[in-house]
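Hmm, what's this shape?
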Amino acid sequence: MTQYKQILTDGLWTQNPGLIQFLGICPLLA
């Protein structure tokens, strides 16, 4: 189960640079 989650996470990180920036900004807005 953990392996699938790791693959899914890696896929999100590599395919969604905008999401990475959004997650990077969120802590600053919180």
